[in-house]
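User: Fold this; tokens only.

Assistant: Input:
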Amino acid sequence: MFGSEILEVAIGLVFVFLFASLTCSGIMELIAKLLKLRSKHLKEELTKLLKSEDLVKALYQSHLVKEISRGFVSGKAKDDTPNPDNIPAKHFVTALIDTLLSIEKGSKEFADIEESIKKIDDAQIREILLKALNGVRTQAGKWEDWLEKTRESVEQWFDHSMDKLSLWYKKESRKIIFVVGILVTLVLNLDTFMIVKSLYQNEALRSSVVAAAEKADPASFKPENIGKTRHELEQLGFPLGWNLGKSQNEDPRGYPVGEIAIIYKIIGLLLTLMAISLGAPFWFDILRKLMSYRKSITPEKEDEEKPGK
């Protein structure tokens, strides 16, 4: 049926957009991991938050922070400096209080950190950290009770700052993913018009891609599997990459012939790039809806095709 063909073409197209988006996200994660972007930005944000490089250094040497750092957890740390990508609020508060209590009173470090804490904008947090630094026992010695009551305030303060960091990181990630998206689109020749034409004209390819789409699971997609996923698509007969030895008339991967074909190629590549920028979660959600709709109409189609119907 004509309608089912269009639906399968749409499923195949969305599946390719999902693959491309996941590829860009995977490459972005590899770049972030190699350049340690998350850990660097976390350390910078903590320095801004606590107004003190010395306090951040002391905090990073705490047992709790070392425990959640990638290198220290695996035992593969190359130096004595932990590099956590993220610090849970509860760990942060406990480690920070312990660090402040361990700093020797009267030392230059104590004086410098005390001066830095006084520069913190939030008056309540400033008071809490100063009391912890000085080890002031409040409420007639009920130090533990006081800590429990103040812990939530420090956690909220920290979480709010980390939320801002997350938003900033997402914006920076989008910039990198956009650049990666340009490279992926060009290298793999992901022309939207070519994809639609190939799927519509090749029933075997369309069926294979739809079957692969049914098994799609972004949760199991890992950056190191990018090459494997591309190989699987190529095995299905999907035209990825370029064949500059032939024209588009001979091979879908060939070079465009004529001005109109060149314009269509450019627009097709731009459409794919715009689709990739929407992100993998968006395309996975669309794919699930399309697959669900396809399953809902399949019984009706089978009934129509039964003899005597």
